[in-house]
Write a structure and sequence with these properties.
heterodimer; A: 252 residues; alpha/beta; TIM Barrel; eight-stranded parallel barrel; 9 helices; 28% strand; globular; B: 208 residues; Rossmann fold; eight-stranded mixed β-sheet; four-stranded mixed β-sheet; 6 helices
């Protein structure tokens, strides 16, 4: 049976792993390699590295290569600066197993098809930072433009047409706050297609993760800050969630 | 057997990432050569064909680098060859990913889109076929999969299955024909169970 996943996230800004608070404040944590190596050693189901300040500089290939050189035996997903087919090819060639697409979805959604042809649709994950603006109304946050608006038609179409293989729904308000994930955001994305969803932002406790894992379309949760402060955080979370279809905890 | 004396040749055809496979094989204690050159790959005891990407692009690259004939000859001569993920799919006769494309034709069967659901991404357990003693130690182990197309072919070549849901139709997880093996999952990304399986296959390939 396909298991749901508990993935660890590492946010990278100016080359350093940071603790992010709602995309507004950042607390340095150390070298990304150290955090990624820990997640690999502790038995995460996957590692998501998001370089959040790449802008139009392309993917951080040196970072991906350094992470690849660690000899990880855990799937590595990278996001940040991916705008073209060449970026996608080079990021995969550098060592990323899957790619998280964010800004390109808004700026140039046509590029996603070319990326899929180059590295395979199964390698592409659409990241949607979302926030609830009022009851029943969810907006898509576009960092680079500093704007929020309902999910655009091109992005909705891209998801409906399965031009990516998963959607990473990010709680842009809850991110870094540890107050749980707003499930309304998932409700806004679920009707678009049957693509598996991942939830990220605000998740620290098993009690917050359990109701998400009960959603049929949710394939996994991504936990960031909470995993950095306890050596056995992954094991503890999984032990608290044995009633859920997660892969049993197993150290590397 | 001293695994450090064995050499694994990673077939580099310019698609996907070979670093993680290279590191994993080295961690297991084997020597590794990564090359596009047949004369370099000739020195390997076991050939490893990794792959991330789309089938047509990968076959195009294999043709462009002259590796199609090389791999076909290697298999005919009984050289051990292990395909991983897309590398496994390339072993089949054809694929319908992004149109019809001929594969290496080393194992009878075709690669077709997965239906219901359209993806198989994440960790799933293996159901090893009863005639595969080499894989028995991995029966029930959970491996990492990431694909939207899968192999379909004669059951005689299926070494292991997996299922998205209990009771659902099985999906092929591993194939074998003689010294040619295909693994739909990523052993190099499946932590200890994956590395153990990969080590067994490499060592067994050399013995056979």
């Amino acid at each position: 049976m396909l298991r749901k996943r508990l993935l660890g996230a590492v946010i990278v800004r100016q080359g350093w792993a940071v603790q992010s608070f709602g995309y507004q404040r950042w607390l340095p944590l150390g070298k990304p390699e150290c955090l990624v190596e820990n997640l690999d050693r502790w038995g995460a189901d996957g590692i998501v590295v998001l370089a959040i300040d790449r802008g139009n500089r392309g993917p951080d290939l040196q970072l991906i290569e350094r992470l690849g050189a660690l000899g990880l035996s855990t799937p590595l997903t990278y996001g940040g600066g991916l705008a073209t087919e060449r970026d996608a090819r080079e990021a995969v060639r550098a060592g990323a197993g899957r790619l998280v697409l964010d800004t390109v979805l808004s700026n140039n959604p046509q590029a996603v098809g070319a990326m899929a042809r180059a590295v395979g649709v199964q390698a592409l994950v659409a990241a949607l930072p979302m926030l609830q603006v009022k009851p029943g109304e969810v907006h898509h946050l576009q960092h680079t433009k500093g704007s929020k608006s309902p999910l655009s038609a091109p992005i909705s179409t891209l998801i409906a047409n399965r031009e990516v293989s998963e959607v990473l729904v990010i709680d842009a308000v809850g991110e870094g706050k540890g107050k749980g994930f707003n499930q309304t955001l998932l409700q806004a994305v679920e009707p678009l297609s049957d693509l598996p969803l991942l939830a990220f932002g605000g998740l620290t406790q098993a009690e917050e993760i359990r109701p998400l894992l009960c959603r049929p379309q949710l394939a996994g949760v991504v936990v960031g800050n909470a995993l950095n402060y306890h050596e056995h955080a992954i094991a503890q979370l999984k032990e608290s969630l044995t009633d859920q279809p997660l892969r049993p905890h197993r150290k590397r | 057997m001293n695994s450090a004396r064995l050499t694994v040749g990673i077939v580099d055809y310019g698609v996907g990432n070979h670093t993680s496979v290279l590191r994993s094989v080295r961690q297991l204690g084997f020597r590794v050569r990564i090359s596009t050159q047949p004369d370099q790959l000739d020195h390997a005891d076991v050939l490893l064909l990794p792959g991330v990407g789309a089938f047509p692009t990968a076959m195009e690259r294999l043709h462009a680098t002259g590796l199609v004939e090389y791999l076909q000859r290697a298999a005919q001569r009984g050289r051990p060859l292990i395909g991983i993920c897309l590398g496994m799919q390339l072993l089949a006769e054809s694929s319908t990913e992004l149109g019809f494309t001929l594969g290496l034709g080393l194992i009878p069967g075709a690669v077709q889109a997965i239906s219901e659901p359209s993806w198989h991404i994440g960790w799933n357990s293996l159901e090893v076929a009863s005639n595969q003693p080499l894989l028995h130690a991995s029966d029930g182990e959970v491996m990492y999969f990431n694909h939207s197309y899968s192999y379909r072919g004669p059951e005689a070549f299926v070494a292991a299955w997996t299922r998205v849901c209990e009771g659902s139709q099985p999906m092929v997880a591993a194939i074998q024909r003689g010294s040619v093996w295909g693994l739909q999952f990523h052993p190099e990304k499946s932590q200890r169970p994956g590395l153990e399986l990969l080590e067994r296959l490499i060592k067994a390939g050399v013995k056979s």
